[in-house]
Design a protein that fits this description.
Length: 160
C-alpha cells in the first residue's frame, strides 16, 4: 500500500475567483508562475482544459540534470471554485493537485494549493522527502503563489 503525504498552502489575492480560475484552466500559464529555475520546454494540450483533458509538460528543473515529462489529467473542475489535476506520469509515484479559489468577505480570493503526493522508492523516498523534498515543495509553492499574487496585483504588491 502506497503512503501519501499532504501539503497545503494558501494566499489571499486581490482578484475575483473567476479570474484566478480562468488563469488556471490554461496550463500554458504554468511557466509564468513557476520558480525561476524551472525551464519549460513545452506545454501541450487543448486549452482551456476541461474534465478529462490531458496536458503534457516538459520541464528542466534543478537539481535534476535531465528534462522531466509530466502527463497530467484534469480529474475535476468546479466552476470558479477548483481545478484538480492528477499526474499519470511524473517524477512522483503519486501526485494530485487541487487548486481552490474561495471568495473573501471584503473581495478578493483565498487561493489554496492542496497537494497529495508520494515519492517513488517507498521508505527511501519517504526519507528523501523528510530530508529535502518537503522543503523544495514548500519553496516551489511559496514562489508560485507569490508570482500569482504579483501577476494579479502588480509587482509592487506586498507579499505575505
Amino acid at each position: 500500500m502506497r503512503r501519501t503525504t499532504s501539503y497545503r498552502r494558501s494566499i489571499d489575492i486581490a482578484a475575483p475567483p473567476s479570474a484566478l480560475f480562468a488563469f488556471h484552466l490554461d496550463t500554458r500559464n504554468a511557466p509564468l508562475i513557476s520558480p525561476d529555475a524551472a525551464k519549460f520546454l513545452g506545454v501541450d494540450g487543448q486549452f482551456p482544459v476541461e474534465v478529462g483533458s490531458r496536458v503534457t509538460l516538459r520541464v528542466r528543473q534543478p537539481p535534476i540534470p535531465f528534462t522531466q515529462t509530466w502527463k497530467i489529467r484534469i480529474a475535476e473542475i468546479e466552476h470558479d471554485r477548483r481545478v484538480v489535476d492528477v499526474a499519470e506520469k511524473s517524477p512522483f509515484a503519486f501526485w494530485r493537485h487541487e487548486h481552490r479559489f474561495a471568495p473573501l468577505p471584503g473581495g478578493g480570493t483565498r487561493m489554496t494549493d492542496d497537494v497529495t503526493y508520494a515519492l517513488p522508492l517507498g521508505p527511501v523516498g519517504r526519507m528523501a522527502d523528510r530530508l529535502v523534498g518537503r522543503r523544495q515543495l514548500e519553496r516551489m509553492f511559496s514562489e508560485r503563489q507569490a508570482k500569482t499574487k504579483a501577476l494579479f496585483e502588480g509587482p509592487a504588491a506586498p507579499q505575505k
